TrEMBL record:
TM regions (residue ranges): 74-96, 492-518
Subcellular location, record wording: Cell membrane
UniProt keywords, alphabetically: Cell membrane, Glycoprotein, Membrane, Transmembrane, Transmembrane helix
Pfam family, one: CD36
Primary location class: membrane
InterPro entries in UniProt: CD36_fam
Residue segments, region Disordered: 1-36
Bias (Low complexity): 9-19
Stated family: Belongs to the CD36 family.
Protein name: Scavenger receptor class B member 1
One GO MF term attached to the UniProt entry: scavenger receptor activity
Amino acid sequence: MSAETILPSESSDSSSNPSTKCEDSDSTESGDSTNTLLDKTVSKDCVENGGDVKHTREWKGKKIVCCNPVGQCVWGVVFIILSVTGFVFTPLDFMLWEKLQMRPGLPPYEWWADPPDEVKMRAYLFNVTNHERFLEGLDDKINVDEIGPIVYLEKLLHSNIKFNENSTMTYTAKRFLIFLPEENTVDFNATLIVPNLAVLGLASYLHNANYLVRQAFRFMVSTHGSKLFVKKTIQEYLWDFRDPVLDTSKNLAPGLVPVNNMGIMARIYADFTDEMTVMIGSQWGHEHFFQIEKFRGNPQLPGYDAKECPDRIFGSTEGVMYQQHLTKSDVLLYWRKTVCKLMPLYFDSEVTLASVPLYRYNLSESVHERVSNETDCYDTHPSLPDGISDASKCYFDFPMTSSYPHFYTGGIPKDHFVTGLKPDRMKHNSYVIVEPLTGTPFHSVARMQSNLRVHDLSGFSDEYDRFSNLIIPLFWCEYNQEDLPSKIKWTIYFTVVILPPLSIGLSSALIILGFYLITKNMFYRELSNDKLKNFLHFKSKNVNTLAKNTIFTYEKEKFLKGVS
């Protein structure tokens, strides 16, 4: 009876006092020694936290998920999987694979869409110093003197960007020059004596025309008082080279002479807006990334017949980006409309700039040599000597040729056509320094010379004949990508120098941690099983001993009789 009256009050107290409830639950289960041991920690926590059973259960649930042996083993397996994945497909691989897509908003696309202003164009002009002596026959050859450099910034703009369904990207590339007065010391009002491009160029173009056409041309030149050498300011020679012969010829034969301004830079940059289609995406892979598929809608070199010229612009690059994962055996094909041909670059050496390991590729010194047993796209009739390539297809069939500056390569003696040249490999070669994993050019120098090809002019007059079969250097240009912005250099440094060892370190740490968690919990599981067996064995032994005790039996019987 007393027990029955006490129990309700205890129940009431426990329901009103969380602390008491926590204690009672502890006491009611105190008869089971195993449960008491297992719940000892929870009961203690419950009392210390004011009996907050809900908080205790939440904490216990989190502990079960994160910290119990099964949870730790799961985390160990996850860490091992992440580590193996990191070794097989590294963060660098992921970044390079993502770069293939050229997604707007990400750095590779944004840096390409708005290229940094880092390309300087330096022009060197040739001034004729003995034009009167040459015309009078006192000197056998024209002597030239180099003037320059004249420095501009070449600006490149990309617009009308369109992503195509066949994993290509079409865009419009426009190049133009910005004068840099602070880097120039040449007086643009200074005068030069230069070959009259209008007269000699048109005469060379008409060298195999019939007699009446040649004589009519001579009469037109004489009527306008045009000379074979003219005096021009540097500004005129570069941007505003005009002659009355050009105006008359353009009116008489606009198809033959489509322009009346022969200024060197005016001609090069008058039509420097080109539609390009390049290969991007995983379909093409790293080896074809950003290579040209079409130039102005055609995979063929502009001006060349596909049946006559095997060279294709397909697979070349405009030099802003190169393929990824470059090797020393790769050949880089560079396309520059000014030169009007594909330029192959071959591996030369390993270099380091801004603490980044790079590859240097040199432009082949045999690039302007004649090709035997194959179709030579860059020769004319009569054949050009080694070291000179035909460029007329990009200049309305005007007799222009390209070569290395000062004819420093090929089989041409330096004084064969003109005197005064000083070929120097260190000053006149071309190369590009590329980060091989990302295909990013760190530094590049492209140097090319433009020359006037004069055919046999013996059908005009003795004065013209003195120029027969000459190749007269007009100017040469250096396109120099001098540097990259700091943010691009730092990004590449982090990507190719810091990220690979960092990812290896993280992957190694994860795999070690994963194996540690699994091994530790397997060991503790075995240890716990051994302890539990020993404990149960000890308890069973004590119970049996107590049951055999006669005093304990007597007290138990007395208690049962009293209750009844």
